[in-house]
Amino acid sequence: MTSMTAAQSTSPADRPQLSLRERKKIKTREAIRHAMYALVREQGYDATTIDQIAERAEVSPSTVFRYFPTKEDIVLTDEYDPLLLEELLARPADEPWPDSVRYMLREAVRTGVEEDAEIARLRTHLMVQVPAVRSRMMESMSVTGRTLCQAIGERTGRDPHSLEVRVTAMSLVGALMETTLYWAENDHRDDFADLVDRALNVLQHGLPSLKS
Questions:
Q1: What is the largest CA-CA distance in the chain?
Q2: Separation between Cα atoms, residue 169 and residue 152, nearest integer Å
Q3: E strand intervals along 89-178
């Protein structure tokens, strides 16, 4: 999920149940991201420094590092993963599991790609073109997978530490990552929602037979 979501006109900071402190934190993270995206467009990823990002976002370099341990994390993390997991947990208890997953990932596509296609393309381009971003993305998979394990456990009543849940979670995370990379490697020609559906079909039904 990290690899899809993007900055939007409607911010998670606008959620009324959040405290003022939490809203300020989200706004600060969003300002840092927007600053980095603007700088990357202007001068490229490698030339963009933390000091420049901090200056553009009007925060200190230490603030940038407090929210994002590495420059790569600014590209890869956002505020929307928790919201998508909430969507998964809120699905009807009797809804088939594959249908719940498809709903969650369609929401991810809607919030992360369709509402800000330019940022989504920039981020996924960096995932393909910048080795440090791609390496960090691989590291972040395990964190996302553990979070998803908890959500799957709550949604299905299974032990979140069981092998079955772990395999399910990491299969979803891996499928989403490979779909994102495939989309970027092919110049974003395909409809991303269609690619996600294709990936889910493989997970649900297995590799399709070759047509004769």
A1: 61
A2: 8
A3: none
Q: Are 103 and 87 in contact (CB under 8 A)?
A: yes
Cβ 31 vs Cβ 59: under 8 Å: yes
Residue 53 contacts residue 35 (beta carbons within 8 Å): yes
**DSSP alpha helix (H) spans, 6-116:** 20-43, 50-57, 61-67, 71-76, 81-90, 97-109
Q: Is the pTM of this model over 0.70?
A: yes
120: number of CA atoms within 13 Å, CB side? 23
CA distances from 58 to 31, 65, 131, 148, 180 (A): 8, 14, 28, 34, 31
Q: 123-181: per-residue pLDDT in tens?
A: 999 999 999 999 998 888 888 888 889 989 988 899 999 999 999 999 999 999 999 99
